């Protein structure tokens, strides 16, 4: 499975991505709102090995890598969670390397993925769960027309502390 447009390429995670993933995911400051900050290369390699071989498998998380098309550089990733017995709902989480933020790569990547999920895979609902302190991600969800559906107070234990969790979602029929 590979998706691309003028600016980005989305493809499955590969073994050779491990070092680069550790570089940008290991940045505790840039990834303060992320649930997974790897400590070493072995942890990343184990993570890669656990990725399913097929996209769109019920009750699985599938990791897509974001490559900047102009340079071919790996600049981030999107975790895609297929859930529910009917396999018609999806959750995602996106991470971009700090140096790649502010270049519309997250927007380009999500637009590509959401179009594919709704138009090709006929998903019913897509959601994202985020820390409300992550203002940039909240604004991104709003730009894409996601509605804020819930705000759970101190419901998520992350990096040694209880944090709030905000859920955004959009239905297929609401997508442009």
Key terms for this structure?
eight-stranded mixed beta sheet; alpha+beta; 8 strands; 176 residues; 4 helices; 24% helix
SSE pattern, N- to C-terminal: EEHHEEEHEHEE
Q: Stretches where pLDDT falls below 50 for ≥5 residues?
A: none
Order of neighbouring strands in the sheet with most strands: 1-2-3-4-5-6-8-7
- Structural class designation: alpha+beta
Number of helices: 4
Q: How many E-type strands?
A: 8
User: Main β-sheet: number of strands, strand sense, barrel status?
Assistant: 8 strands, mixed
Q: What percentage of the residues does DSSP assign to strands (E)?
A: 35-45%
Outline the secondary-structure elements.
Blueprint: E1 3-4, E2 8-12, H1 18-25, H2 41-49, E3 60-68, E4 74-83, E5 89-96, H3 105-120, E6 125-130, H4 135-143, E7 147-158, E8 161-171
Parallel strand pairs: 5-6
Antiparallel strand pairs: 1-2, 2-3, 3-4, 4-5, 6-8, 7-8
Helix pairs in contact: 1-2
